[in-house]
């Protein structure tokens, strides 16, 4: 169940980040990968800053989307 939950959250967070960063999404598989890595980055970022975030399903999606936006922003710096 944990793997399915991570895939679902990753897909939603990656899709949301792709739309927020004007990327329009990258397809289901890459959205899942970016969302899962974004969740790790978001959790690390919030823990480092000492920010307590919303817990639960919505909090996981927001944390993943924010982390994925950070990843996409950094990737866009290298793309130029």
TrEMBL record:
**What lineage does UniProt assign to this protein's organism?**
Bacteria, Pseudomonadati, Bacteroidota, Flavobacteriia, Flavobacteriales
- Give the location in the cell: Cell membrane
Species annotation = Pseudotamlana carrageenivorans
Provide the Gene Ontology terms for cellular component.
plasma membrane
Q: Which InterPro entries match?
A: Transgly_assoc
Q: Which residues cross the membrane?
A: 23-45, 57-78
Classify the protein's membrane topology as the record does: Multi-pass membrane protein
The record's keywords, sorted A to Z, are:
Cell membrane, Membrane, Transmembrane, Transmembrane helix
Protein name from the UniProt record: GlsB/YeaQ/YmgE family stress response membrane protein
Q: Does the keyword Membrane apply?
A: yes
Q: Belongs to which family?
A: Belongs to the UPF0410 family.
Note whether Transmembrane occurs among the keywords: yes
